[in-house]
Amino acid sequence: MPIISVVCPTFNSAGFVTRTLESVVNQTRKPDEIIISDDGSSDNTVSVVEDFFSRGHNDIHWTILRGEHGGAGATRNAGIKRSSGEWIAFIDSDDFWLPNKLEVVSEAIEKNPDVNIFCHAEEQVGLDGSRQIIDYGKWYDPGKPLPAQIYYRSFFSPSAVTCRRKLLLDAGLFDETIMSGLEDFAEGIKLQSNEHTCDLNDLKTLLPFGRIALPTTTQTGWYRQEDKNGTGEPIIAVSHAAELLANLCMDAPARSKLVVANGLDHFRSIQAYDDISQTQRLVIFADCYDEEMIKLVASRGCKFWPIGRRELISANSATEKNTKTGFIGSVVRWAESHESFSINDIACEDTRLDAIWSKLDKLRAGTVPAEADNTLAKLISRAWRLFLNATYVWETPREAERMNAQKEIDRFRLDAAQSQMWISSESVRTMNEIADDLTTCYGPDSTLGTSKGTALLNAIQDASLGSKTLAVLVRNEAKVSELCRWLLEHDQLKFVRVFSPVTLPSNDAFDRVLCVSWLGGETMRQIAAKLVAPCIAVTGYRCERQWLRQCEWRFRTNIPTPTFTTNEKSEFISGGKLPRVIWPEERQQTLTPVLSDRSSDIWDFEHQLRIGRIGLATRPTQATETLPARFVRFSGEYYAFLTETHKLPVATELVSNPGRGGQTLPEKSLIDIKLGDFVVFPESGERELIQELADRLIGVPAQELRKRAHQWKDTLRLNRITPEEFLRHAKELNRSRHPVTIRNWYSDTYQIGPREKDDLVLIAIVTEDENFEKQIDGVWSAIEQLRSAHLSAGLRLRDALLQRLPQVTSQIEDSGTQVDLGELGSARILRVESIDSATEPRGRAEVNRLHLEKFGPELGELLKFVS
To answer: Strands 209-212 and 512-515, how do they pair?
Structure first.
């Protein structure tokens, strides 16, 4: 059996190191020694560690090293030098291991005697209770040299690594000059004092860095990293939790802090934005296409600064040359694409398809979205999908394709006929005409697709003659394969790269993105937002060209927001204390094109179809027990009512890059799910998928284990103390927690347990529940077992999806698909089309489960089920 030494660096860790040590000493395979290397803590970390070991664990050799504050590298090195084991397992003082970690690693060492480093997956837990699995092994390519891979992306997390001691000593140990990853980055940022000198200073030497204290630590507020006494504030402090930062901002003197946020996503909980913006100065770097959040913060007085290309680079040719590569080069290319963005059409003709669109638009005008059972809208949606399928064709359909299309057309005709009691006879006649037109399109002598195919080939040839890089976009991965085959037959594949909307790379650059057909308004917006090319073109029939003009009009119509003028920008940068900055002239604003005809607006059409698809969703619930939930529409014929705290596995990364390693399968609640995301539902539709899989792994004891783990929730509920009262009592006891943490304890019905065992102790003290206090050890044990099972279930689900996705990717984007996960059962992957902004009361039996739309005669049965 290998001899394993555990090295745990600490720095002001008194509030959380006990849990870390508990996870080490309670391993199923005990460590041979534990070395706690303290980095000159200014709190009572050392005494907490000594007190922990004084209460037992005499079967494990342990040592405490006390050193001057020198950073994580120096602290780990001291522990390595003092260790005696052949292997070193690192664990940071704010992390903890699952009980069988060392047992699994030990077995892996024995089975792989030639391996020097072992690294496993981790689960990251946010302050709000959110959880995300990071599987570092997926980034490792055994066919490539390790140093080159680490240089590109480090996939070693200290607490997940076990390494040969000799390897570390031979390599010269850790770099003791680097205090943190942020400071490492800052060391590479050079600042020039003025344009007349060549003196360069790195950001790290100019600014003292710091941290923001967690609620569980003895530190408070933001504190300087390099200050051994913990006094004084840093110039820069970093946090990933907007709610935690907001709490500190409210306690700090007004306008004494500058808060910089990377993205509006941090403020999906608008309360955090309000708390920060009303007390401190706030700068947010935002995506210009995040319309909903932009409008929201604009309504609260936020002022906007659209950054252009000339504001990013100097006119100096040397500077221009240096901004063509790397990250800055990417940013400049995005700015250039945004400034010169254009939308073009490449004409093709088919009068039959244009006629079908006219009839569809006429039918749409007769729909009433507010009706509880809008059968007409749902039938139009069916006809719309059939019509779009015809516009996607670029070669004469084969016999099998024509037969399949005709089956769908006949089924649509039958559904329309059976719905006569719900819709007018005129609408039925129009639908029959649409069915007749579609039948003609797919007839034996049809020329469907030939005009589009010719236009597509001409566009590709023109691009190749002009040495233009071209990305061709089709609706899904199945169409990618079909188009690649067709282009290969015509000897044109060598000139293009073919993608679907979800696989179009954001970090690449093209001269033009060519869409084979209209892909939907929201999808077109997402493609434009990637800024991978300054031009988007569509090979389109007359109706598609009309939609494209509407698309361009919408993209060029700016969201009405208050913006900075040139003078205000100069004043903002100089702060009134430095010489006035001469700001680059703003480019001439492109006039918003005048849209002469908006009578058949495709955005309105698609929006009305989505509303019409709700069906029973607009009918008030008949249930006596209701929950507030938001209506979510998915691709195909699925919808759901989701509560704010319900979490779903989000497979967007897996679907978008099925062949790439390192993908994750995070569980997200509604506040973090975006339009276009791919979510995973259990086939039963009734429970969280991860929970269902975890219970299968646990077996018979699962329900009893959950009942025991749920006792902390029962204590809070039965005591009838409000979150506000709990927070007040906790502060009086000098054991405060962040308000968001406490609110989540009460509101998040899917939370397995609090973050720390000490939280259970606090709950027992505040509620004065002596019986619960006696049960804490058992409750905490149950919570840890459930978390371990959820972690295993998440990894197994991710791996099963990775294995199955290549076979089902072509089906997912159109209407969702069922995925057979073997022993894990089955699941359904669906694309999010829209999320209602407001909640509505829904019956408990309706929420957090998947619903399938019903048509015509089946409606009565569905009404019976809901009531």
So the answer is: unpaired
Torsion angle, CA of 731/734/739/743, rounded to 10 degrees?
Answer: -90
Quote the CA–CA distance of 768 and 392 in Å, as a whole number: 67
Q: Fill in the amino acid letter for 18.
A: T
Q: Compute the distance between CA of residue 415 and CA of residue 855 in angstroms, rounded to an integer.
A: 8
Q: Where are the alpha helices (DSSP H) in 112-219?
A: 146-152, 165-171, 181-187, 203-206
Q: Where are the alpha helices (DSSP H) in 423-574?
A: 425-441, 450-465, 477-489, 521-530, 542-556, 566-574
Token pair belonging to 797: 């689900």
Q: Kindly report the length of the chain.
A: 867
Place of tokens 């935002």: 286
Using an 8 Å Cβ cutoff, are 288 and 341 in contact?
no
Q: Which residues contact 650 (CB under 8 A, 6 or more apart)?
A: 665, 666, 667, 668, 673, 677, 678, 679, 680
> Is there a contact between 198 and 153 (Cβ–Cβ < 8 Å)?
no
Q: Can you tell me the distance from the alpha carbon of 542 to that of 548, in angstroms, rounded to the nearest whole number? A: 10
H or E element, residue 652: helix 652-656
Query: Is the Cβ–Cβ distance between 802 and 810 less than 8 Å?
Result: no
State how far the alpha carbon of 286 is from the alpha carbons of 101, 298, 552, 583, 705, in Å: 40, 12, 22, 21, 44
- β-partners of residue 631 are 641
The token pair that represents 216 in the structure block? 């569980």
Q: In DSSP terms, which residues pair with 261 in a beta bridge? A: 284
- The pLDDT-based confidence of 492 (bands split at 50, 70, 90) is very high
Half-sphere exposure of 66 (CA within 13 A, CB side): 10
Alpha carbons 523 and 653: distance in angstroms, whole number:
17
Residue 551: which pLDDT band, with cuts at 50, 70 and 90? confident
184 phi/psi in degrees, rounded to 5: -60, -40
Reported pTM: 0.59
- What letter would DSSP give residue 11? S
The tokens 């699952």 sit on which residue? 98
Q: Are 519 and 527 in contact (CB under 8 A)?
A: yes
Sign of CA dihedral 379, 380, 381, 384: positive
Reported as a pLDDT band with limits 50, 70 and 90, residue 145 is: low
Partners of 212 in the beta sheet? 222
User: What residues does 34 pair with on adjacent strands?
Assistant: 6, 62
Helix (H, G, I), strand (E, B), or coil: what is residue 35?
strand
Tokens found for residue 545: 């060209």
Each residue of 24-40: pLDDT tens digit?
A: 998 888 998 999 998 87
859: enclosing H helix or E strand:
helix 859-866
Distances (CA, A) of 755 to 656, 744, 759, 787: 32, 11, 7, 11
- Assigned token pair, 866: 């809901």
3-state secondary structure at position 252 = coil
Q: Is 620 exposed, middle or buried (0-12, 13-18, 19+ CB in 10 A)?
A: exposed
Long-range contacts of 105-113 (CB under 8 A, 24+ apart): 105/4, 105/162, 106/1, 106/2, 106/4, 106/29, 109/2, 109/162, 110/1, 110/2
What SS3 class is residue 467? Answer: coil
Cα angle at 811 between 806 and 813, to 5 degrees?
Answer: 105
What letter would DSSP give residue 519?
A: -
Q: pLDDT per residue over 164-210, tens digit each? A: 888 888 766 765 544 444 454 455 455 544 444 455 555 555 666 66
Judge whether 164 and 87 are in contact, CB under 8 Å.
Answer: yes
